[in-house]
Prior knowledge:
The protein is α/β, with parallel strands linked by helices.
Amino acid sequence: MKKKSLNRNKLSEYLESYLLTTDFKDYCPNGLQVQGKEQIKKIVCGVTASKDLIEKAIDANADAIIVHHGWFWRNDDARIIGQLYDRLKLLMDHQINLFAYHLPLDNHSAVGNNVQLAKLLNIKIKGQHPQNPMVWFGELALKRNTLQDLGQHVTKVLNREPLIIGDMTKRVKNIAWCTGGAQHYFKDAIDLKVDAYVSGEISEPTFHLAKEFNVAYISAGHHATERCGITALGEHIQEKFGLECQFIDIPNPV
């Protein structure tokens, strides 16, 4: 049976509209970052556009790669040398398109990292912080809901043991979260009067904030909390266009 294909520009236009990319002021360009083949039959999805992911996409005969963490970040060296040259050459030698969606994928209402993480953690979503919509909040719906129970559930669904700051016997009902490197949003979460905040990373001041405000902090892993969005996006593309979309996980302990 002949594989379905989609024009590169059609896919780019659709994802720009679906993910509302123009609504975000981001740290990198969202959308098509590197042009490859005009017709796309197979897509590889992954968290980060690393050399390992590109090599696996080549082995999988992919025409496009879609990631959450792409290239050309603000303040990056703009020269095509060294690591970036090696990665870019692999893409261009094999005419593979690279698409990247950062903040638009974090906060999408259906396939976003934050929404998908809430599903994994059994959180009933109530809303977003009124001044910082990157921070979501809701109610934990676990049958057993101490901080220890939540930590065990996080370990199970993300396959990674989190770092937890707080009293493990404390009951957790109201919870806020933001995937990835969002420890700097902790004060926004505290303003919401929650019992706990879940993010991907942690910094030195986080410990003191958690202790002094009596709000538990769960650092569940940047990579681990952001696998779910790109996976959901790939599933959406496959269902809508009939394209083959394969998620490839490149393990990352951070």
